[in-house]
Give the backbone structure.
Amino acid sequence: MASGAFRAVATAVAVFLLAAVVIATKLYSDASAALTNEVVAGLETESRLIVASAGGDEAGDLTREIEQRQRFASGRLYLLVDARGGRLAGNLAGIPSELAGKPRGGVFRYAAPGGDSPARQAVALATNLADGRTLFVARDVDDQRRALASMRLTAFLGFAALALLGLGGGYAVSRYALARVEAVNATARSIMDGDLSQRIALAGSGDEIDGLAINLNKMLDRIEQLMAGMREVSDNIAHDLKTPLNRLRNRAEQALREDAGPQELRGGLERVIEEADELIKVFNALLLIARLEAGALEGTIEQIDLGALVADVGELYEPVAEQAGLALEVKLEPVTIAANRQLVGQAVANLIDNAIKYSSGVAGGARVTVSLVRRADVLEIAVGDNGPGIDAKDRERVLARFVRLERSRSQPGTGLGLSLVAAVARLHGGNLRLEDNQPGLRVVLVLPARPEKDRPALTSPHPNIRAPALT
Amino acid sequence: MLEAMRVLVIEDDRETASFLHKSLKESGHNPEAAFDGESGLAMAREGGFDVLIVDRMLPRLDGLSLVKQLRAGGDRTPVLFLSALGEVDDRVKGLKAGGDDYLTKPYAYTELLARIEALARRTAPEEQTTRYVVGDLVLDRLAHRVTRAGDNIPLQPREYRLLEYLMRHAGQVVTRTMLLENVWDYHFDPQTNVIDVHVSRLRAKIDKGFETPLLHTVRGSGYMIRDGDR
């Protein structure tokens, strides 16, 4: 299994090792050369001293000098031979075989006196005297050589260990990364097979792959939510548009079937048009909600005076409220917000429209209050009525599309009003809250005071989609 | 009644085009039709039309480009866009391209008729008219004052604007949607017929106590302000 990650690690290890070997080799050869030079320089000095001790006469007797020196020296070797190679003095038995034919001397092995090590290494320097004798001065370098050899071995073993650790570590890291990527892949495959509810498991380490998984999960949440929206829309179109379509068809049929005069036919056609207009309204509302839930507000956002807008919509409904005999009270703060004026206007209109519809005729005088207040970094538009209200258990449900509680079936409307308001709220990064107005219902449209792009884009706009746990 | 308008319908759906053609003729106008963008532009350039009805999606040259090209040539003939697109910003796109009004399909013919009549009549720049007069009802735009038979009628700001719009289009049908769009600047359906209540309030102020009603309800369409039977 040659993963990309492992190849990368192996290459890095190889490059690192190569550099280390080059450096170590250079250090070793420098150290070795320095030691050798020092030994050779010492031998040259000593040779000159020995020759000089004979009083400048090279033919003189060097034996005494050599014997004196070899008495105190350890690891120092001397040999004086005549022209034929016969030993004259010194602590070496004879010319070592390695030095035969090497007039300047060289490296040789000798048996250390008293030691059983058969062959220690030494370096000899030969000086040819004028009378044909040859003086060999040598020094034991065995310990030095051993130290260098051990250095070499240590370096080699070290590099081998490094290579093994590097490659092993790289393998482990790449295996881990691959396993994580494979987990993402496996989830992606099962999603492609049709299970959109799958989510990528997080390792909990908060690393890049977790970050990727979190974002992918969020993307999946969004897709699932869009898919669910699509499915819901098509279900609802099937269910809730077919009923009025059927009604429309029935009316047309009825108008044709009856033994009708022109007046009845005309009435029938008028009812057909009314029914068609209702259908168009439902259809438009559905499309608008679907579009809002798909996002995309770009280019439609402007800085608007929300206070003026709410006051405006309140004013639009004021005569209707008066006609219905209810008190419409509007309390405002002057605030501006970046929003789509038409959508927010429609949302507020829907809320006031609902409040008027559901509270008119309440004993003791119906009352609708509209308020706009700023709280911390949100703006709250609240529309309260003193109508029958909505039971706590039903509040969440009425935000769903087309849900109309039993007792409101008789009221005109598409049943999409609140869903539309909720969609507008979500589109602006806000939400919709239903509260008990004691008595009655209070609907609060919460909009963020700051524009969308200034806020972190982390919050899932849909409360029913769980956000991935950040551990 | 209004004088006949020359209307050019540029619409690729022949059924719709022939429906509009027939209906406009019945309404007393002189319609002509083009079925694609290029021939529509050519016809429009020949001039002589009071208003153009342009579908957004046309073969060969789309409605937006058609109107842009027409406007680039200095032609100011009023344009009403027709579109099945009702996206939040489609309307804005249409108006930016040089359209004067925007109607989303499906629409009521009465709505379309009211709108093109309003467009075609919008010849004189509004700013230059300082007084609107319908019968003995006078709206003085400089003094911001409304009188009927010489008596001052105090109006709320919104009522004033409502009356101003109705009087600017005196003798024409003005639909509820037109009022909502032009007086309130809302492009959504407020569900309840809020406009009706506003209009009846206004009517109570300008017509109550007078023998001749000026503000009339046109059944199935909207409202019209006009002097008696004229």
Notes: The two ends of chain B are 8 Å apart (CA to CA). The first strand of chain B starts at residue 6 and ends at 10. Residues 61 and 176 of chain B are 33 Å apart (CA to CA).
